[in-house]
Design a protein that fits this description.
This protein is of the alpha+beta class and 279 residues long. Helix content is 63%, strand content 15%. α1 packs antiparallel against α2 and α3 packs antiparallel against α7.
Length: 279
């Protein structure tokens, strides 16, 4: 087996022979950067769905201020819209929590126990986290999360300024959940009446954000080293090719006639990883 760096495109480009160790280090570094990217993508999906929920509630509030509809069907429309956003958020948190460990393990092989501990700490210390985890299981198998909505407004002091604060709250009813045997009984027993979902969701996302920050710290050195390795490979090739590296690939091959047999080829570039860094 032989290994080389060259441009995978028509035309003549410099060919740099490399050894197996160098080829494997390039593959490993790219895999680690891909895993780091996957971690950030899952997190961005989660945050995007959380933002959609906040926007939905703001939109509902604005429409209530302007139109003040009291039609019965309107309440169902609002509840359905909020349920859709909650379901999307809970689905993306499930995806994040289930997949984050395997991505982190690619970057830091012995990280599994630490990642589990990050999540366990948030679960143990925050009712909101425990509730949303139980609610997610309920939504996936039994029913919807939002059982009621409430619009409210109040004059802000001093009243003579005529400033009014308006808002919308959405609730999960304890009576709905405690009558369902599938909902975690220990969590139901912690509920002090109905649970207001917007404030609870904010605390839940805050916990996940804290875990995410710790995961970034856990993989930081490994990912940094991987990026520096790829930067070095690109730089060394550009030195031999008048500063050009577009289409650069690392290739494992077996010599043959009339052409070589390609065993494995990976593209060597960092444009996609630049996106991760911006996030």
């Amino acid at each position: 087996m032989k290994y080389r760096l060259t441009i995978n495109a028509a035309g003549r480009s410099p060919v740099l022979e490399i050894d197996e160790e160098k080829f494997n280090s390039i593959v490993t570094a790219l895999n680690q950067l891909s895993a780091a990217m996957a971690i950030e993508e899952k997190y961005e999906l989660l945050i995007g769905n959380y933002l959609d929920l906040e926007k939905e509630v703001l939109n509902v509030t604005a429409e209530d201020i302007l139109y003040s509809s009291s039609e019965y069907s309107g309440f169902f429309d609002i509840r359905l819209a909020c349920n859709k956003r909650i379901v999307n958020l809970l689905t993306s948190t499930k995806l994040y929590i289930d997949q984050i460990q395997q991505h982190t393990k690619i970057c830091v092989p012995d990280s599994s126990s630490k990642v589990k501990a990050f999540f366990s700490k948030e679960y143990d210390e925050n009712f909101e986290y425990r509730f949303m985890e139980a609610l997610r299981n309920y939504v996936q198998h039994r029913g919807l999360a939002v059982h009621a909505t409430k619009h409210g407004s109040r004059w802000l002091p001093p009243e003579e300024n005529r400033l009014m604060e308006c808002g919308t709250k959405i609730f999960s009813h304890k009576s709905e959940l405690e009558n369902d045997k599938a909902f975690k009984k220990a969590v139901v027993n912690e509920m002090n009446g109905n649970v207001e979902l917007i404030s609870t969701t904010r605390k839940y996302v805050e916990s996940i954000n804290y875990v995410h920050i710790q995961i970034r710290g856990l993989i930081e050195e490994s990912v940094k080293n991987s990026r520096e390795l790829i930067e070095g490979v690109i730089s060394s090739y550009e030195d031999s090719n008048n500063g050009h590296s577009l289409g650069l690939c690392a290739t494992a091959y077996e010599s043959g006639e009339p052409i070589d047999t390609i065993i494995k080829r990976v593209q060597v570039f960092l444009d996609w990883d630049n996106v991760r860094i911006k996030w």
